[in-house]
Amino acid sequence: MDTKAFKRSLNHSDKYFRNSLGHGKDVADQMQTEYQSSLIQKIRDNNYVLTEGEVTISLAKSFGFCWGVERAVAMAYETRQHFPSERIWITNEIIHNPGVNQRLRDMNVHFIEVIDGEKNFAVVGEGDVVILPAFGASVQEMKLLNDKGCTIVDTTCPWVSKVWNTVEKHKKKAHTSIIHGKYQHEETVATSSFAETYLVVLNLDEAQYVADYILNKAESPEAQQRRRDEFLAKFEQAYSEGFDPDQDLERIGVANQTTMLKGETEAIGKLFEHTMLQKYGPQSLNDHFLAFNTICDATQERQDAMFELVDETVDVMLVIGGYNSSNTTHLQEIAIERNIPSYHIDAPERIGPDNRIEHKLLHGDLTVTENWLPAGPITVGVTSGASTPDRAVEASIERIFQLKQQAALVTAD
Ligand code: SF4
Questions:
Q1: Tens-place pLDDT, residues 290-327
Q2: What is the pLDDT of residue 259?
Q3: SS3 for 163?
Q4: Which residues sit with their C-beta closer than 6 Å to ligand 1?
Q5: Domains recognised in the chain with CATH numbers
Q6: Catalytic-role residue among 141, 187, 206, 333
Q7: Could you give the dihedral angle defined by the CA atoms of residues 384, 390, 394 and 396, in that order, rounded to the nearest 10 degrees?
Q8: For residue 233, what is the enclosing H or E element?
Q9: Distance 272 CA to ligand 1 centre (A)
Q10: Structure pTM?
Q11: How far is the CA of 35 from the centre of ligand 1 (A)?
């Protein structure tokens, strides 16, 4: 498919919306009421610190809803107002937050069901309205919905669209897009759908493996075939159909899932630039490598604030955000790397009753930890992912205050 031509024609369609639908003011008031928090504002105003009883809360200086998420949720709310009687669908979670998604369900926005790993678009009919979430949708999904005669409200964050443009440039110059991301993450699925040839690498280790493959050749054709097979097995499901590492890594460009660790994305970009420089020399570098600049500011700011927070003396860290939220998981990773006891929860209700917390282990399952808050005066570092409303942070902090108050009362008895 000529993805660029398709997107251009979609942009001219009167059934395609990718900006506010004109109800911004009403929706802003509604969102303020539903998601903002006076307690969080108070902590912000107090230089991000608040002490109550034995608990000091130290809040990250940048956390929670990013503007791309806020924009997407506002557009979804506007869609309901703008199309009060139409059937409205959404192709995926609007953002990775269970509370916000439930709120949309309450507004009678239907989520496309996934059956045996496939989305069931058969339920969507002509005249229906379909919302595309903040992290986008694959170009094939957009085409399918457009062919069905649906109205499309595209809330894709402009930062994500910027990555898609980068991938289009790679394609135009016949370069393979190497995408730093998780191949099954919705954003990366959408981004890779715009590429002709792509390979997704999860981290610096995988990127190094690819760089080694580019630089070294086996001594015999048989050994090279074995290397190639090993490569294809290692990255199974993470490359475009027919991908051939012996040919498709001669010209590359780097793109990223916007919520990956910024430092790692940059390191991967540099690694591939050096690799191609080493292989082809400075004169030919531009024919073999395309630089990129698509790291989202919001991700960067939240990660920088987390690095600042873990440098402070905190006894415990609380990270709030959806369990499938990539940017939240990366915040948790930063705390774990510093050996700080860190608990990732997706909702305030995971805290209590008593001094217990149900949380998700990094790369693991849900688990319950008893006595997670240490006795005596403590400092709790708090941050939240880009899909988490301030209200959820407020409720989590209030639960911590309550637990420590109860503990103080028991000790006093
Ligand atoms: S994290 Fe960045 S790319 Fe993702 S929605 Fe927010 S602003 Fe957009």
A1: 977 777 888 889 999 999 999 999 999 999 999 988 88
A2: 87
A3: helix
A4: 66-69, 134, 157, 159-160, 258-259, 296, 298-299, 327, 386
A5: 37-65+297-412 (3.40.1010.20), 68-156 (3.40.50.11270), 159-290 (3.40.1010.20)
A6: 187
A7: -40
A8: helix 221-234
A9: 25
A10: 0.88
A11: 18
